[in-house]
Amino acid sequence: MIRFEGAGRRYGEVRAVRDVSFEVPRGSLCVLLGESGSGKSTLMRMVNRLVEPDAGRVLLEGRDVAGLDPQALRRGIGYVIQSVGLFPHWDVARNVATVPRLLGWDEGRVAARVEELLALVGLDPATFGGRRPATLSGGQAQRVGLARALAADPPVLLMDEPFSALDPATRRGLQAELRRIHRETGKTILLVTHDVEEALALADRIAVMEAGSLAAEGPALAVLGRDAPPAVQRMLRPEALAFQRLGVLPAAAFAEAGPVPGAPGLPGDATLRDALLLMLAEGTDRVSLEGAAPRHLTVAGVLAAPWAETREAGA
Ligand SMILES: Nc1ncnc2c1ncn2[C@@H]1O[C@H](COP(=O)(O)OP(=O)(O)OP(=O)(O)O)[C@@H](O)[C@H]1O
């Protein structure tokens, strides 16, 4: 769907992006991860031609974006940025309606779409549609930004640090919303972050940038594995990475058969981190997993799990 072929860009002496090649498969959520200044935004902005590569090319659905009209290209790609960039004098509904109006949709269709999108991002249309951006919280504004980016139903979404200005709880909530929206809409999403935990929480695939080059790319749990590239290990120590991995590994994949009478119960869709937190809270070394067949997890099982590559679901 999105393919970088030897993409590069210099700014004077700075090689912001150098010889980057990889593909973002259709329908996947790929996170571009890297330290500040590693070239993530520059690479991402090549997709919607806010930056032109001076080496290589970027293909969208097999077509070199250099040959596409930039305005038409951008209307077909949702773009969400950290500062949201809502028009301050327009209410929420009008902000969300920007691209459909540019595309000449009739007013009935625009209104229905605005309502549908505000509901999709978890904002009540009656409450929020008429409000100005200045009256919104950061998290609400970011939801509006996401609704606006999705408005014309573009197959591709580019998201540049969309949640980094938010407090941790709001951020986790919006990450969960984005995962749900991704599942429901099947969009191809490329998202920039410098936060390893966010990458693990969201990504199907991760591309790690280091000093303009691609340091690693592949399925999330494989890239953020025991052999994580130095760029990742500098961002997060291996033991912290192990803990982060607990947060995305499903408890069910590591459960053992058999009941444990009296053990606290864990929902069937819980993660290993949920299992460990329940054990800590209850002062117990095992929990049972709720579901049709009796299963349980032991603390030893949880601690051995983060690097047990062979049993990882989806890796
Ligand atoms: N328009 C520009 N003019 C000059 N230098 C630029 C320009 N855009 C980016 N750079 C330089 O290119 C390098 C990569 O920048 P880029 O914004 O892509 O990094 P990033 O990984 O997205 O960083 P951050 O996480 O801090 O946003 C940096 O050294 C930056 O200073």
TrEMBL record:
Q: What GO terms in the biological process aspect are recorded for it?
A: quaternary ammonium group transport
Question: Which Pfam families does this UniProt record tie to the protein?
Answer: ABC_tran
Q: Which domain of life is it from?
A: Bacteria
Q: Sorted alphabetically, which keywords does the UniProt record give?
A: ATP-binding, Nucleotide-binding, Transport
Q: Which InterPro entries match?
A: AAA+_ATPase (IPR003593), ABC_transporter-like_ATP-bd (IPR003439), ABC_transporter-like_CS (IPR017871), P-loop_NTPase (IPR027417)
Q: Which PANTHER family match?
A: GLYCINE BETAINE UPTAKE SYSTEM ATP-BINDING PROTEIN YEHX, OSMOPROTECTANT IMPORT ATP-BINDING PROTEIN OSMV
From the Swiss-Prot or TrEMBL record, give the protein name.
Osmoprotectant transport system ATP-binding protein
UniProt source species: Muricoccus pecuniae
Query: Upper taxonomic classification of the species?
Result: Bacteria, Pseudomonadati, Pseudomonadota, Alphaproteobacteria, Acetobacterales
